[in-house]
Amino acid sequence: MIKKEKLLKELEDIQKRMLKAEIQKKQLIDGVKPQFRISAINLVDYLALRSKNIEKLQKQLHYLGLSSLASSESHIRIQVVNIMKWLGSENTLTDEIDSSSGFKQLQKNIVSLLGKAGGDNIPPIMVTFDTDFADDFQLMCDLLENGMQVARINCAHDDEPIWRKMIDNLHKAVSKMNLPCKLYMDLAGPKIRTQIIGKKHKKGKLKVQLGDEITLTDPEEKTIKIKNNICCTLSGIVEELQPEHRVYFDDGLFEAVVQKVNGKQATLKIVRISSKKPNIKSEKGINFPDTLLKINPITDYDETCLPFMVQYADMVGFSFVNTAGDIQQLQTKLFALNKPGLAIVAKIETNQAVNNLPAIILQGMQHNLMGVMIARGDLAVEIGFERMSEIQDEILWVCEAAHTPVIWATQVLESMNKSGLATRSEATDAAHAAEADCVMINKGGHTIEVLRTLHNILSRSRRNNFKNRRLFRKLSIAERFIFQG
After folding, report:
1. Which of 2, 100, 120, 336 is spaced 20 to 30 A from 89 at the CA atom?
2. Beta bridge partners of 172
């Protein structure tokens, strides 16, 4: 038999934990802009709740026909208080935020950042522009007609004249179609790529086998006489490696483990090959999931792009964000360009960024409307593909508690965009994307078909969007922020 007195005591302890966390994080809460204050408080309350496992409590509340606290991210403390009252508590504590105001604040931020939901209440769809979009006016009109509500220009590609033509084309199409569209522009961020060097590797590839030892070198290391040598294009990384750290090449197709580090050279051992052709090629990405990299996320090239971006973009996508300090650095740049309030979308693509997500959001709230992009490509390599579903859900929960819009990105209906036909798993993945506040599709030859299919999938998924009941195990993100941050 479930004792209501015991449940009430557990809920009172949760409430006390929330209030204590608010006191501990008072400086962070007081630092945000006034319009984001209730969001900051709600985020801290939610993380205080999720810093311990309450699955058993949830099941008992559900058995009694009460709220199990699931789907209450946007208004978590008042939900706890209301349950306590149903159990007989005389708690008279009022709250700045209830279920209605929490949902309204989230919706306000979504609309401000991304625009209103499309037909059938589907989240806005973001379309990545290709170079050809600069001159194809009819395609731009078709994109708008079929549901594009956010246009994405990745500043890692093309140049300012091409971007300006894309933007002019977009504005003309928006005017003709009388359909709104936000403009999102990505900072390129640091490029960590392979460079195969040596006379034996003129074709820019290195053949490897399981157990092979290879050398990863800093670009400042000029020697090319080392056998099986791969240069890392970004300076300063190799020195940060330690024995047993994992290193992934080419989106995780090749896994190596650090054996030893000698200054600007590291010896790695190949422990997994997941490619039919065992060749590590030049210009492929490198990931370091176990290494805390000390990298400036704003490159010299990014600084040359920022003046153009602040002139035209509705929001700036910030690549390779790892810490709150990275957000602060971008905010300083925006202040210098007289655009301090430009919306920022933090691209979460590393394990370090996931761990620091609450602090990243709270730093952004000091000056800017914040969004978060789940950059699932690099993130999956960093954290392991088996954890991807779990982590993307955690990001969604934390962001909803902060009333921060989430963009679901990378490989959405990618096979369909390339070949015209989606795989079954991609269709299921696209349905899951309905839990986000915006869905991004990449470049491809079948963008219009992808837009139509995605609209169909999302509209069906949104009908079932609020039916899931979640169990609140302890979140390491929450525990780290509450007890260590």
Report:
1. 100
2. none
All structural domains of the chain, each given as residue ranges with its CATH number in brackets, are 4-104 (no CATH), 108-190+295-462 (3.20.20.60), 194-287 (2.40.33.10)
Which amino acid appears at position 269 of this protein?
Answer: K
Q: E-assigned strands of 132-250?
A: 148-154, 182-186, 194-196, 205-207, 213-217, 229-232, 246-249
| Tens of pLDDT, residues 126-175 | 999 999 999 999 999 999 999 999 999 999 999 999 999 999 999 999 99
Whole-structure pTM over 0.85, yes or no? yes
**Tokens 């780290």 appear where?**
480
Query: What is the overall mean pLDDT for the chain?
Result: 90
CB 404 within 8 A of CB 436: no
Torsion region of 216: left, alpha or beta (phi above 0 gives left; psi -120 to 50 gives alpha): beta
How many secondary structure helices (H) and strands (E) does the chain include?
A: 18, 17
Q: At what angle do helices 376-383 and 388-401 cross, to 10 degrees?
A: 120
- Which tokens belong to 159? 């140049």
State mean pLDDT over 54-68.
Answer: 91
436-454 per-position pLDDT tens digit: 999 999 888 888 988 888 8
CA-atom Rg of the chain in angstroms: 24
Which residue type does 246 have? R
DSSP code per residue over 104-154: HHHHHHHHHHH-S--GGGPPPEEEEPPGGGGT-HHHHHHHHHTTEEEEEEE
- C-alpha closest to that of 50 among 27, 73, 30, 82: 73
DSSP states of 144-165: HHTTEEEEEEETTSS-HHHHHH
Q: What is the pLDDT of residue 467?
A: 37
Please name the residues in contact with 129: beta carbons below 8 A apart, sequence gap of 6 or more.
151, 152, 153, 154, 166, 443
Residue 402 phi, psi (nearest 5) = -90, 5
Counted residue by residue, the chain has a size of: 485
Which strands make up the sheet holding 246-249, listed edge to edge? 194-196, 229-232, 213-217, 265-273, 254-262, 246-249, 286-287
Of 47, 17, 9, the C-alpha closest to 362 is 47
Q: How would you label 385-412 residue by residue, b for 16+ Cβ within 10 Å and e otherwise?
A: eeebeebbebbbbbbbbbbbbbbbbbeb
pLDDT, one tens digit per residue, over 191-204 is 899 998 765 655 68
